[in-house]
Amino acid sequence: MLNKLISLGLILGLIVGLGASMTGNEILHTVAKTSTPLGQIFINAVKMVVIPLVVSVIFTSIARLGDPKKLGSIGVATLTFYCGTLLPAIVIGMSVMFFGLRFIPEIKMPTNVYSQVPELQSAVDFIVSLIPSNPFSAASNGQILPLIVFTALLAAATGTLASEKRKRMVLAAEDFSEALIKLVWWILYLAPLGVFGLVASSTALLGWSLIQSLIVFILCVLIGLFLLLTFVFLPMLIIYVKMNMSTFFKGSFGPASIAFSTTSTAAAIPVSLEHTVSKLNVSKQISDLLIPLGASIYRPGSALFQGAAIIFLAHIYGVSLSSSSLGGIIFATFLVSLTVAPVPSSGVVTMTPALATIGVPVSGLGLILGIDRIPDMMRSCVNLLGQIAATIIVEQHIKNKNQLNT
Fold first, then answer.
1. pLDDT tens-digit profile of 148-160?
2. What is the pLDDT of residues 36-60, one digit of tens each?
3. For a Cys staple, 39 with which of 152, 197, 297, 311, CB 3.0–4.6 Å?
4. Considering the domain 2-405, what is its CATH architecture?
């Protein structure tokens, strides 16, 4: 129902904005202009919740893993696979979007929506800036990326504590995360009005150019997801596991259809657990560990989407990107892709840290949120297929290692 209301807000915003742009009707222009505060309220609410949400989810995800030395070969292989495929996913999303920019009509966004673009740092300065001298000051100043680094290091240290102490901290962080996720739901109920306000005012100024640009963005994301599945996951299954692709897709179809329809891999966990064991011949021990873990922190489709969205928004807002800023985007997107909450379009909400890295206005999220239903369904499906592929590949790695040791 929420997605339908958001779509309705988008459609009404487009109708009002296009009507104002094409006819010059003063009433429509007035409606578009006076609806702008609705969009600003929504964006302020998103900015209000994103820092504590990102921090709490990253802390919980990393600290829950426990001492890295105690994870053993399964944990090392899993984290290696996650890192080794998330980065290509982000690069694919950015690359496809860079190519797609040539098909986007020239857009001149109004100057009053620009945020101040930060001075681009050198690579050395960027690395130094990742370590905050005062994490609380970084949080208050909106310097999210250094805060994320501090949180990841604190969570890793928490994972080495005695079991009882670690559990207390993780449980407290999980409770805090649940409260923030509930708050995100409340904010998303404002999304239909917020999207209407953002889209109506933007479309009234930009007309058809904005619509054409959003269509190109959706197509680039879908192409990128297809490339990720075809050239990253499937070759690894074929070459390393020697798995027949018909077997993989038949075994994954049930949980993938649930992820597609609900836009949530968490909702597909029970079916994923059953199918990986009964249809894909994964051991119950590996499946019970990696399927819930993957649903919690591994979302390659979301990482690809976020990489593409950042390039798209930087382009339409006229923010230039240097090689050092691209490195910051990739690093920030890699970290925030681990924080996607189990609510619709949360992959859009958690993009704020990466946008802040290069100075792209957060108000651009409203444009993406309005057309996110189709990309959200597709990336949730790819997330699920990636999580199942990770489970199969890690088990094959463990089997190969055991054979070498015998």
1. 778 878 888 888 8
2. 788 778 777 777 776 787 777 778 7
3. 197
4. Orthogonal Bundle (1.10)
